[in-house]
Amino acid sequence: MRQHYRVIIIDDDPITRMDLVEMLQEQGYNVVAEGKNGKEAVRLTQEWNPHLIIMDVKMPIMDGLTATGIIRKHSDAAILLLTAYSQKDMVMQAKAKGICAYLVKPVMEEELLPAVEFVLTGKQ
Q1: Domain of life of the organism in this record (predicted)?
Q2: CA-to-CA distance for 64 and 110, rounded, in angstroms?
Q3: 30 FRET partner, CA 20 to 30 A, in 18, 63, 113, 117?
Q4: Does 56 reside within a domain?
């Protein structure tokens, strides 16, 4: 069942991307693409029409919140935000942009998988 979900991972840190891909693939999710900035997130979303985008906030070229605003114009994919920050103003901005959930880095598997299940179930 999980393999039918198309997932995109967007993070400027290659180690974080690798860890997320591994955690998700071990659970049977179909990670179809990876990117390192918000501009790539926008392009990959148009190309793959994912069910879920897991995206960092702070990235070069285009940050995750800006990318989310653009993505929301043409996609209803669930977006799970990764952040090293948990400030209230960032959380409010994320909610206003249509973020489904967020996790504070470093992300552990026992936090990631329930969050992924939660946002994907909410999109059905």
Answers
A1: Bacteria
A2: 23
A3: 63
A4: yes
Dihedral pair phi/psi, residue 100, rounded to 5°: -80, -35
How many structural domains comprise the chain?
1
- Give the residue numbers spanning the domain of 65: 2-115
Nearest to 54 by CA among 72, 66, 68, 43: 68
Query: Which phi and psi angles does 118 have, rounded to 5°?
Result: -60, -50
Cα(97)–Cα(25) distance, integer angstroms: 28
Least confident of 15-19, 70-74, 104-108, 113-117: 104-108
CB 53 within 8 A of CB 77: yes
Q: Which residue has the higher pLDDT, 94 or 1?
A: 94
